[in-house]
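User: I'm preparing a small set of examples for a lab meeting where we compare how different chains pack in three dimensions. I only have the primary sequence for this one, and I'd like the structure in C-alpha coordinate form so I can line it up with the others. Please keep the answer compact; I'll paste it straight into my notes.
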Amino acid sequence: MFAGGLGSFIPIVGYHYKALRLPSGLIEVLKFFGIGVILSTAMIHIYPPANDYLNDPCIAGRLGNYEGWPGVIFMLAIFFMHATEYILTSKLVHSHENETGYAVKPNSGGVENDPDNFAVHTSHTHVHGASLGGGKLTKDMLSTYLLEFCVAMHSVTVGLTMGLTPKDGTFILCAAISFHQLFEGFAIGDRLSRLNNDVSSLDTVSTSVKAKKSPMFLGAILYMFATPLGQGIGMAVHSAFSSKSPSYLITLGVLEAISAGVLVYVALVNLMAEEFSTLKFRSLSRTLQIYSFVAMYFGAAVMAVIGKWA
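Assistant: Understood. Below is the C-alpha coordinate output for the 310-residue chain.
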Protein backbone atom coordinates (compact mmCIF):
# COMPACT_ATOMS: atom_id res chain seq x y z
CA MET A 1 0.00 0.00 0.00
CA PHE A 2 2.81 2.41 0.92
CA ALA A 3 4.77 1.73 -2.28
CA GLY A 4 1.72 2.12 -4.52
CA GLY A 5 0.57 5.26 -2.71
CA LEU A 6 4.04 6.82 -2.83
CA GLY A 7 4.38 6.18 -6.55
CA SER A 8 0.92 7.48 -7.48
CA PHE A 9 0.91 10.57 -5.26
CA ILE A 10 4.40 11.92 -6.03
CA PRO A 11 3.46 13.21 -9.52
CA ILE A 12 0.04 14.45 -8.36
CA VAL A 13 1.37 16.39 -5.39
CA GLY A 14 4.24 17.73 -7.48
CA TYR A 15 1.90 19.14 -10.12
CA HIS A 16 0.04 21.23 -7.56
CA TYR A 17 2.70 22.12 -4.99
CA LYS A 18 5.82 23.64 -6.52
CA ALA A 19 7.89 23.12 -3.38
CA LEU A 20 7.41 19.34 -3.69
CA ARG A 21 7.73 19.16 -7.47
CA LEU A 22 10.42 16.92 -8.95
CA PRO A 23 12.42 18.17 -11.96
CA SER A 24 10.36 17.73 -15.13
CA GLY A 25 13.12 15.71 -16.79
CA LEU A 26 13.21 13.27 -13.88
CA ILE A 27 9.42 12.91 -14.00
CA GLU A 28 9.59 12.03 -17.70
CA VAL A 29 12.32 9.44 -17.16
CA LEU A 30 10.58 7.82 -14.18
CA LYS A 31 7.30 7.74 -16.10
CA PHE A 32 8.87 5.76 -18.95
CA PHE A 33 10.66 3.54 -16.46
CA GLY A 34 7.20 2.75 -15.08
CA ILE A 35 5.90 1.89 -18.55
CA GLY A 36 8.69 -0.65 -18.93
CA VAL A 37 7.84 -2.06 -15.51
CA ILE A 38 4.16 -2.49 -16.47
CA LEU A 39 4.93 -4.28 -19.74
CA SER A 40 7.54 -6.56 -18.19
CA THR A 41 5.25 -7.32 -15.26
CA ALA A 42 2.57 -8.53 -17.67
CA MET A 43 4.86 -10.72 -19.76
CA ILE A 44 7.29 -12.02 -17.11
CA HIS A 45 5.34 -12.06 -13.85
CA ILE A 46 1.72 -12.63 -14.86
CA TYR A 47 1.33 -14.54 -18.10
CA PRO A 48 3.75 -17.43 -17.35
CA PRO A 49 1.99 -18.27 -14.04
CA ALA A 50 -1.35 -18.18 -15.88
CA ASN A 51 0.03 -20.73 -18.31
CA ASP A 52 1.26 -22.89 -15.43
CA TYR A 53 -2.05 -22.72 -13.56
CA LEU A 54 -4.24 -23.56 -16.55
CA ASN A 55 -1.99 -26.38 -17.74
CA ASP A 56 -1.42 -27.96 -14.34
CA PRO A 57 -1.86 -31.77 -14.31
CA CYS A 58 -4.38 -31.38 -11.48
CA ILE A 59 -6.95 -29.90 -13.87
CA ALA A 60 -6.26 -32.30 -16.73
CA GLY A 61 -9.42 -32.90 -18.73
CA ARG A 62 -11.46 -30.16 -17.05
CA LEU A 63 -10.64 -27.67 -19.81
CA GLY A 64 -10.84 -30.11 -22.70
CA ASN A 65 -7.14 -31.01 -22.75
CA TYR A 66 -6.50 -27.77 -24.64
CA GLU A 67 -3.17 -26.11 -23.77
CA GLY A 68 -3.95 -22.82 -25.48
CA TRP A 69 -6.46 -21.44 -22.96
CA PRO A 70 -4.02 -18.93 -21.40
CA GLY A 71 -3.35 -17.39 -24.81
CA VAL A 72 -7.04 -17.38 -25.72
CA ILE A 73 -8.00 -15.58 -22.51
CA PHE A 74 -5.04 -13.21 -22.95
CA MET A 75 -6.24 -12.23 -26.45
CA LEU A 76 -9.88 -11.96 -25.38
CA ALA A 77 -8.87 -9.50 -22.66
CA ILE A 78 -7.06 -7.37 -25.26
CA PHE A 79 -10.01 -7.50 -27.67
CA PHE A 80 -12.40 -6.62 -24.85
CA MET A 81 -10.33 -3.58 -23.84
CA HIS A 82 -10.07 -2.41 -27.44
CA ALA A 83 -13.81 -2.80 -28.07
CA THR A 84 -14.70 -1.12 -24.78
CA GLU A 85 -12.47 1.87 -25.43
CA TYR A 86 -13.77 2.20 -28.99
CA ILE A 87 -17.43 2.05 -27.93
CA LEU A 88 -17.01 4.54 -25.10
CA THR A 89 -15.00 6.92 -27.27
CA SER A 90 -17.59 6.71 -30.06
CA LYS A 91 -20.34 7.57 -27.60
CA LEU A 92 -18.40 10.66 -26.51
CA VAL A 93 -17.93 11.80 -30.11
CA HIS A 94 -21.59 11.21 -31.07
CA SER A 95 -22.74 12.93 -27.90
CA HIS A 96 -20.71 16.00 -28.81
CA GLU A 97 -22.06 15.98 -32.38
CA ASN A 98 -25.64 15.81 -31.11
CA GLU A 99 -25.06 18.68 -28.70
CA THR A 100 -23.41 21.00 -31.23
CA GLY A 101 -24.95 19.87 -34.51
CA TYR A 102 -21.49 19.64 -36.06
CA ALA A 103 -19.45 16.59 -36.94
CA VAL A 104 -16.18 16.22 -35.10
CA LYS A 105 -13.17 16.93 -37.26
CA PRO A 106 -9.46 17.37 -36.64
CA ASN A 107 -8.15 20.54 -35.04
CA SER A 108 -8.29 23.31 -37.64
CA GLY A 109 -4.82 24.40 -36.65
CA GLY A 110 -3.38 21.00 -37.43
CA VAL A 111 -1.86 18.41 -35.15
CA GLU A 112 0.88 20.84 -34.21
CA ASN A 113 -1.64 22.73 -32.08
CA ASP A 114 -2.81 19.57 -30.32
CA PRO A 115 0.36 18.33 -28.62
CA ASP A 116 -1.28 16.04 -26.09
CA ASN A 117 -3.16 14.08 -28.73
CA PHE A 118 -0.73 13.95 -31.64
CA ALA A 119 0.03 10.33 -32.48
CA VAL A 120 1.97 8.88 -35.37
CA HIS A 121 1.60 5.23 -36.34
CA THR A 122 3.53 3.16 -38.85
CA SER A 123 1.80 4.16 -42.07
CA HIS A 124 -0.67 6.86 -41.17
CA THR A 125 -1.33 9.73 -38.83
CA HIS A 126 -4.01 9.21 -36.22
CA VAL A 127 -5.33 12.14 -34.21
CA HIS A 128 -6.25 10.77 -30.79
CA GLY A 129 -8.14 13.85 -29.68
CA ALA A 130 -10.31 15.47 -32.27
CA SER A 131 -11.26 19.06 -31.62
CA LEU A 132 -14.00 18.36 -29.13
CA GLY A 133 -13.51 21.35 -26.91
CA GLY A 134 -14.69 19.95 -23.62
CA GLY A 135 -15.09 16.57 -25.32
CA LYS A 136 -11.37 16.45 -26.03
CA LEU A 137 -10.69 16.63 -22.34
CA THR A 138 -13.35 14.02 -21.68
CA LYS A 139 -11.63 11.64 -24.09
CA ASP A 140 -8.33 12.17 -22.30
CA MET A 141 -10.11 11.46 -19.03
CA LEU A 142 -11.65 8.30 -20.50
CA SER A 143 -8.24 6.99 -21.57
CA THR A 144 -6.77 7.75 -18.14
CA TYR A 145 -9.64 6.17 -16.23
CA LEU A 146 -9.49 3.04 -18.37
CA LEU A 147 -5.81 2.82 -17.56
CA GLU A 148 -6.56 3.32 -13.87
CA PHE A 149 -9.27 0.64 -13.93
CA CYS A 150 -7.03 -1.88 -15.68
CA VAL A 151 -4.09 -1.43 -13.35
CA ALA A 152 -6.34 -1.40 -10.27
CA MET A 153 -7.93 -4.68 -11.40
CA HIS A 154 -4.48 -6.13 -11.89
CA SER A 155 -3.47 -4.88 -8.43
CA VAL A 156 -6.38 -6.76 -6.86
CA THR A 157 -5.27 -9.92 -8.67
CA VAL A 158 -1.69 -9.41 -7.50
CA GLY A 159 -2.89 -8.99 -3.93
CA LEU A 160 -5.04 -12.10 -4.23
CA THR A 161 -2.05 -14.06 -5.50
CA MET A 162 0.07 -12.76 -2.64
CA GLY A 163 -2.58 -13.67 -0.08
CA LEU A 164 -2.70 -17.22 -1.43
CA THR A 165 1.09 -17.61 -1.55
CA PRO A 166 2.72 -19.93 1.04
CA LYS A 167 4.56 -18.09 3.82
CA ASP A 168 8.04 -19.15 2.73
CA GLY A 169 7.64 -17.33 -0.59
CA THR A 170 5.90 -14.23 0.72
CA PHE A 171 8.94 -12.04 1.50
CA ILE A 172 10.51 -12.14 -1.96
CA LEU A 173 7.12 -11.79 -3.63
CA CYS A 174 6.30 -8.83 -1.39
CA ALA A 175 9.56 -7.08 -2.32
CA ALA A 176 8.96 -7.62 -6.03
CA ILE A 177 5.34 -6.45 -5.81
CA SER A 178 6.30 -3.34 -3.81
CA PHE A 179 8.90 -2.41 -6.42
CA HIS A 180 6.57 -2.78 -9.36
CA GLN A 181 3.67 -1.11 -7.52
CA LEU A 182 5.92 1.91 -6.88
CA PHE A 183 6.74 2.52 -10.53
CA GLU A 184 3.38 1.38 -11.85
CA GLY A 185 1.93 3.95 -9.49
CA PHE A 186 4.23 6.62 -10.86
CA ALA A 187 2.98 6.03 -14.41
CA ILE A 188 -0.62 6.15 -13.14
CA GLY A 189 -0.04 9.25 -11.04
CA ASP A 190 1.51 11.11 -13.96
CA ARG A 191 -1.55 10.46 -16.14
CA LEU A 192 -3.97 11.40 -13.34
CA SER A 193 -2.10 14.61 -12.53
CA ARG A 194 -2.33 15.81 -16.12
CA LEU A 195 -6.13 15.70 -16.04
CA ASN A 196 -6.25 18.77 -13.84
CA ASN A 197 -3.29 20.33 -15.64
CA ASP A 198 -5.15 20.09 -18.96
CA VAL A 199 -8.35 21.48 -17.46
CA SER A 200 -6.57 24.56 -16.20
CA SER A 201 -5.40 25.33 -19.73
CA LEU A 202 -8.97 25.59 -21.05
CA ASP A 203 -11.31 28.54 -20.73
CA THR A 204 -13.24 27.12 -17.82
CA VAL A 205 -14.25 28.52 -14.49
CA SER A 206 -12.14 27.82 -11.42
CA THR A 207 -14.79 25.56 -9.93
CA SER A 208 -14.39 23.25 -12.92
CA VAL A 209 -10.68 23.00 -12.23
CA LYS A 210 -11.34 22.17 -8.61
CA ALA A 211 -13.92 19.60 -9.65
CA LYS A 212 -11.25 17.67 -11.54
CA LYS A 213 -9.05 17.31 -8.46
CA SER A 214 -11.43 14.95 -6.70
CA PRO A 215 -11.36 12.11 -9.27
CA MET A 216 -7.61 12.63 -9.62
CA PHE A 217 -6.92 12.05 -5.92
CA LEU A 218 -9.60 9.36 -5.69
CA GLY A 219 -7.89 7.53 -8.56
CA ALA A 220 -4.60 7.52 -6.68
CA ILE A 221 -6.31 6.35 -3.49
CA LEU A 222 -8.06 3.55 -5.39
CA TYR A 223 -4.74 2.36 -6.78
CA MET A 224 -3.10 2.58 -3.35
CA PHE A 225 -5.72 0.36 -1.68
CA ALA A 226 -6.29 -2.11 -4.53
CA THR A 227 -3.44 -4.49 -3.68
CA PRO A 228 -4.05 -4.55 0.11
CA LEU A 229 -7.73 -5.23 -0.66
CA GLY A 230 -6.83 -8.13 -2.91
CA GLN A 231 -4.36 -9.43 -0.34
CA GLY A 232 -7.02 -9.31 2.35
CA ILE A 233 -9.44 -11.25 0.14
CA GLY A 234 -6.73 -13.79 -0.63
CA MET A 235 -5.91 -14.30 3.05
CA ALA A 236 -9.61 -14.60 3.89
CA VAL A 237 -10.22 -17.36 1.34
CA HIS A 238 -6.84 -19.06 1.78
CA SER A 239 -8.18 -21.69 4.14
CA ALA A 240 -11.04 -22.52 1.77
CA PHE A 241 -8.72 -23.45 -1.10
CA SER A 242 -6.18 -26.18 -1.62
CA SER A 243 -3.24 -24.92 -3.67
CA LYS A 244 -3.73 -27.89 -6.00
CA SER A 245 -7.51 -27.88 -6.22
CA PRO A 246 -8.89 -27.45 -9.76
CA SER A 247 -11.06 -24.51 -8.66
CA TYR A 248 -8.07 -22.67 -7.20
CA LEU A 249 -5.87 -23.27 -10.25
CA ILE A 250 -8.54 -22.32 -12.79
CA THR A 251 -9.55 -19.19 -10.86
CA LEU A 252 -6.01 -17.86 -10.55
CA GLY A 253 -5.12 -18.90 -14.09
CA VAL A 254 -8.05 -17.04 -15.61
CA LEU A 255 -7.45 -13.94 -13.46
CA GLU A 256 -3.75 -13.88 -14.30
CA ALA A 257 -4.37 -14.32 -18.04
CA ILE A 258 -6.93 -11.51 -18.03
CA SER A 259 -4.59 -9.24 -16.07
CA ALA A 260 -1.72 -9.95 -18.46
CA GLY A 261 -3.84 -9.12 -21.51
CA VAL A 262 -5.21 -5.96 -19.94
CA LEU A 263 -1.78 -4.70 -18.91
CA VAL A 264 -0.21 -5.43 -22.29
CA TYR A 265 -3.00 -3.46 -23.97
CA VAL A 266 -2.60 -0.61 -21.49
CA ALA A 267 1.19 -0.52 -21.83
CA LEU A 268 1.26 -0.63 -25.64
CA VAL A 269 -1.84 1.40 -26.53
CA ASN A 270 -2.56 3.81 -23.68
CA LEU A 271 1.04 4.41 -22.64
CA MET A 272 3.73 3.68 -25.24
CA ALA A 273 1.74 4.63 -28.36
CA GLU A 274 0.47 7.84 -26.79
CA GLU A 275 3.38 9.02 -24.66
CA PHE A 276 6.04 8.62 -27.35
CA SER A 277 3.82 10.29 -29.97
CA THR A 278 2.95 13.55 -28.24
CA LEU A 279 4.47 16.77 -29.52
CA LYS A 280 5.55 17.39 -25.93
CA PHE A 281 7.82 14.34 -26.06
CA ARG A 282 9.09 15.22 -29.53
CA SER A 283 9.97 18.71 -28.31
CA LEU A 284 12.23 17.35 -25.56
CA SER A 285 15.97 17.49 -26.03
CA ARG A 286 17.52 14.59 -27.89
CA THR A 287 19.37 13.58 -24.72
CA LEU A 288 16.18 13.43 -22.64
CA GLN A 289 14.44 11.44 -25.37
CA ILE A 290 17.26 8.90 -25.31
CA TYR A 291 17.10 8.75 -21.51
CA SER A 292 13.35 8.06 -21.76
CA PHE A 293 13.86 5.15 -24.16
CA VAL A 294 16.66 3.73 -22.03
CA ALA A 295 14.59 4.16 -18.85
CA MET A 296 11.72 2.17 -20.35
CA TYR A 297 14.06 -0.61 -21.47
CA PHE A 298 15.77 -0.59 -18.08
CA GLY A 299 12.44 -0.77 -16.24
CA ALA A 300 11.48 -3.82 -18.29
CA ALA A 301 14.90 -5.39 -17.73
CA VAL A 302 14.78 -4.87 -13.96
CA MET A 303 11.40 -6.57 -13.67
CA ALA A 304 12.62 -9.37 -15.92
CA VAL A 305 15.57 -9.97 -13.58
CA ILE A 306 13.30 -9.86 -10.52
CA GLY A 307 11.22 -12.51 -12.29
CA LYS A 308 13.98 -15.01 -11.49
CA TRP A 309 12.92 -14.91 -7.83
CA ALA A 310 9.27 -13.79 -7.90
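A couple of notes for your slides: The chain is about 75% helix and 0% strand. The longest helix spans residues 69-100.

User: Perfect, thanks.
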